[in-house]
Amino acid sequence: MSARAESLVANQQPRVLIVEDSRSMAEVYVGYLRREPCCVSVAGTGGEALALIEQETPNALLLDLNLPDMDGLSILEYIVTHALPICVVIISANDSITKVVDAMRAGAYDYLVKNQFDADRLRLTVRNALEHQRLDNLVATLRDGARERYCDFIGGSLPMQAVYHIIDCAAPSRATVFITGESGTGKEICAEAIHRRSKRATGPFIALNCAAIPRDLMESEIFGHVRGAFTGATSERRGAAALADGGTLFLDEVCEMSPELQTKLLRFVQSGSFQAVGSGRLEKVDVRFVCATNRDPRHEVEEGRFREDLFYRLHVIPLHLPPLRDREDDVLAIALHFLRAYAHEEGRAFRHFATDTEGVLLAYDWPGNVRELQNVVRNIVVLNDGEIVLPRMLPAPLNRLAPTTAVRTIPGNEDANRTSAHLGTVDDMPANDTLAHDASTWHIRPLELVERESIEEAIAACDGNIPRAAALLGISASTIYRKRQSWLDAERPH
């Protein structure tokens, strides 16, 4: 390989910087990583390490805490302060565990104890660090380029940013896209977005719901028929395959198709040719296929209900639409869109949701997804009026989730209890002598511990659904994710 080629390959590989003052130890680490797909460099002092970091930021850093010119923690502090995208792995002597704990709390990803790890352990740790850094960069990129709307989708959550990215990449190609997701997640909207973003956008978009058409008519709906092909066929009819020529054919609920028709569809997908029912003439069209199902297509194949060869023909680019309950705060943006649209349509004054109402919307599981949310908002607008949607306006079953105020009583202090019931929390009460006197009899626990227990209990009560737990606690889901990560980081050395 030429020097220029080697340089190009090195620039494409992730970079690992080893900060180690012992030259012999550094050479050992370099030897361990020699066959890894990464570019390794070495710094013998803290000053040299900072210079290399400023020159070209590495993806991962193996950092010895005991350096001749500075404390390794200073380098970690520099990285954290400047928000540099570097995954730091601490390498420390066995007697420096206290500094390791400090480093983990300060933001280090992992740690290794000198003379207690072999080549395999170092390679695995570096691989994990590089993957962690890659995923962090991906999340940051998606967040920075977040789109609140995309074609007819509404929502800026991270799961939807991933969906938008896949559509952007897949749409320009001819590859078949296979969309999965629960009912009501917007599979047809997704198919239309793929069509609108493709080079076929000016061509037809033909959608066919395989579950809504009787099986004996399905072949005619797809391929058309000639006059007299069957009883009632009084004239020739073009099917979806011919109508989609030059455009996109969307087969919704494709797993509902009969085995006989799956065979004919496979032939059509492979050759682009088909025969109308009752015709002996072969027709050829230029069609891009997009399919969807609310089932698990692999399970359907395993159960023998869906042809394996057809599955692999259609399942080229899989795209999963997340359920509404996993889309963070998207539910509020979608609900507000429907509220204003239906209020305009019905001549109502609605413009916003009350805070308590938003809490209920976030706490609900939405088994019917966006379609159910759409129906709920339509119900509210048709049966009520006003500028703000109040909890009492919510239909069943959401009206059973109306928020209640948690009240903590204080023995022997009825005035404080009445105040607490009015304000919703003892912390909002004005201080008084009785409260101060009784406080000595309370079992007071650290606020940080109480907060953690409350969050973990809420997550458990919501069966692991963090967005729902966040809504019930009155905080954002991102706050819970951040706090859980900080707890994990603090416990990792132990």
Automatic annotation (TrEMBL):
Gene Ontology MF annotations: ATP binding; sequence-specific DNA binding
Gene3D superfamilies the record matches: 1.10.8.60, 3.40.50.2300, Homeodomain-like, P-loop containing nucleotide triphosphate hydrolases
Lineage per the UniProt record: Bacteria, Pseudomonadati, Pseudomonadota, Gammaproteobacteria, Candidatus Competibacteraceae
Keyword presence, Nucleotide-binding: yes
GO biological process, one term: phosphorelay signal transduction system
Name of this chain's protein: DNA-binding NtrC family response regulator
Domain of life where this protein originates: Bacteria
PANTHER family: PTS-DEPENDENT DIHYDROXYACETONE KINASE OPERON REGULATORY PROTEIN-RELATED (PTHR32071:SF117), TRANSCRIPTIONAL REGULATORY PROTEIN (PTHR32071)
Residues bearing the modification 4-aspartylphosphate: D64
Family annotation (PROSITE patterns): RESPONSE_REGULATORY, SIGMA54_INTERACT_2, SIGMA54_INTERACT_3, SIGMA54_INTERACT_4
SMART domains per UniProt: AAA, REC
Protein's organism: Plasticicumulans acidivorans
